[in-house]
Amino acid sequence: MSAGAPGARGPMLAVALLIPIFAVNALVFFWPTFNLFKMSFIRGEATGALTDETTLANWTGLFRDSFYSELLVSSVTISLVITALTLVLSYPIALYLHRARGLRRTVLLVLVISPLLTSAVVRTYGWIAILSDGGLVNSLLKALGLPAQRLIFNTQGVVLGLAEILMPYMILALLAGFGRLDARLEEAAATLGARPRQAFWRVVLPLSLPGVMLGCLLCFVLAVSSFITPKLLGGGRVFLLATEIYDQAIVTLNWPLAATLSMVVLIVFGLALALYARAARL
Amino acid sequence: MAGATSADAAGEGFLSLRGLTKRYGGFAAVDDLSLDIGKGELVAFLGPSGCGKTTSLRMIAGLIEASAGRIAVDGRDLTHVPTYERDMGMVFQSYALFPHMSVAGNLAFGLEMRKLARAEIERRVREALALVHLEALGDRKPAQLSGGQQQRVALARALVIRPSILLLDEPLSNLDAKLRDDMRAEIRDIQTRLKATTIFVTHDQMEALTMCDRVAVMNRGRLEQLGTPEDLYERPASAFVATFVGRINRIEATAEGDVVRLGGEALRAARSAHGPVELMVRPHRIEMSAGAAAPPQAQDGPRNMLSGRVARSVFAGDLQHYEVEAAGRLLSVERSTVSHEPPLRPGEAVTLSWRVADTFMFERAS
Amino acid sequence: MDERPASPTLTILASLAFVFLLAPVVIVLPLSFSGDAFMAFPPQSWSARWYAAIFSHARLIEAFFVSLGLAATVTALSLMIALPATYALVRLRPPGAEAMFSLFTAPLLLPTIVLGLAILIVFAGLGLLGTWRGLLLAHLVVCTPYALRVLATSLANLPADVEQAAATLGARPATVFRRVTLPLMLPGVAATGALCFLVSFDETVLSLFMTGPRISTLPVEMFHHVESRADPLVAAVSVLLVGFTLLVVVLVDRSLGLGKAFLKGG
Is residue C210 part of a domain? Predict the structure, then answer.
């Protein structure tokens, strides 16, 4: 309710106050997004020049060229693997945090959030320092007399690095989900004769499922569209939707194809969201 | 003084509400409220939560737009005047002090809006602080004050602008019981001294009855009765008022004229009706004597009589509460413990009697 | 509630996961003091040579100042755009306010790789690629949604009756906003400013599409450096960057702390 006279200030003032934000969004969001959709139906020439012709060729080409169907399948598969790994790594931290109190909780929470404030470039760079041929892991292997491993510039490196990058999102989603988990429920389970392990599988895990699903949706969506980490840790050898969009847009200058791939990313988003909505209702 | 102001109000009201209505969709939060309040009068809006009393107050303040009706102060129509031009001081239930301003800053705010000279503002802020006994706390921030002190600042802030009307929205509900009693007396004292025309919204009947010249009892958006505390207590206009103000026995029965038959005994009421009714009588207006003997007829008019049997007896300090079984119902009876009489025991036969004038009768939906 | 001792299994699992989570950030610090010409961990020798190298790297320094100026401008503009919008949507509540709120925060739902491409195509036609104005607009579209969200929460949490009290005391709507609403929103405004600054300063993907040989930002320069060569230079930059982020966070926390002091109990 307005603080002044009722009805004295009509919607005109509201409209005036909303003009700047509308202008920015119109120029840099609505128009470009709509234009991108249109671009996926425009025929481009090999030189990168655009024609005025509309065509479905960009879309049908995706299905004709097995490179793109494989790209789609591998992007989704790798993102699912990353999501699963992120979940496995995040769950213990989230549960531990949920049970911690006071200063310990604050400090650990700051530690969880602080990577979010650190540039993805920096964290990916840190992974290069750990996984590269002269990196931490291979130095350890060498010190133990074991053979060196190729850990970087392949799918493995991308999966490890991205899982770590996405962990804070997963942990925060899980923590939100744990909100419903009253410690007394576990105590109740214990009084009924459940061992801690049984209490976890029968009480804690089922109650945390909504948080798990939300975290998985979030991480999957971020993994499918992530660019910096796959580009740097993949070293140009791991092909994913996001890196391909960038290459088509900047290197090959095939904007219609880049636009079509972008639409594919959005369709994958939509499907993931629909699947989540379905699962959340059950 | 209550009588004098009531008499003024009978004529042209200083504040006049006519057909004031607030609808939310199909629901009427306030329905056709009309009343007049005299200059200098303290009137309570009393009712259960959701009865429309706060909505009415906010319409008077201009914080909610009326769906229909008219609000006028001193003959001037304010219905469509914005809040900031209405010149009403309001004390909010939450106090709504400006947390980023000092106490003095809070008091000065309304005076600054009126573009008073600096010196004049300082003088009036000092006066207002003295009025609520907070002279030493002008530099404090609201968060550094106790609840009672915050309440006084809110009151002083509303009064310092010398408003045409003072609006109090459940101002005491956030205070503990002891402080509430002190503040009641203080508000009444300040209001009388300043002769501030005041509306006091409360759900607490004690507050309304003890502080106010007149009380408007509201229920489900409608005005049930506007009257002095004595009017409400002795001459309730509706079953709702009778039951909401003070304790009362309710006896369902069927009326033929002013007579009601109850288990073979005839009771009379102060008015007549036909069909299903509720008879009501206040527990402390019932006289009770041991045995079946009829008590002597009192000088103050005809009385109703019922014989019964004590079912329960509970000691409550200044009062002894009884439940008496009579004519097949349980009636509450209260006797003062001042006489040191030994209390009547459960099972004892008693005779109840009360004045016909104290017997209220209201139609009941069958 | 009392703290319940975590089981040994959980403690061990959580500790390992924490090591994994923090390792890439932590390892950067010792690496930045490497004396080697190439990246190796642990370094063969130690020195501060890479810190010195930053200052002779003109493109990095230039990019830092671009990022700094950009973040400051984006922050100021985001506040100037989002504050009126917040007031309109939260307090004036025109019809469709909720839908508009969703619409104006929608840019956050779009992956930056898609949004970046969309803006690239439009800005190419407008001649805004590789310009400061183009970068500014692209950053604005991701910062204003954050600003709108945080400011809306901040305003919605302000008790409306404090503003109503000002109105009953004779303050006009503009005065209420200036004397009461805005001062009480100050902690929210500070948090919003810090968030916009960090988001803009950190923004990489959109900037990759907008930058060119003429203008570049620090994250973009770091990205290109890591992409093309493996040396400890970026480690030194990262340490300084983390320190800088920490400084911003602490500064805001200080100002928020002050804010909380006078909001307490109000």
Answer: yes
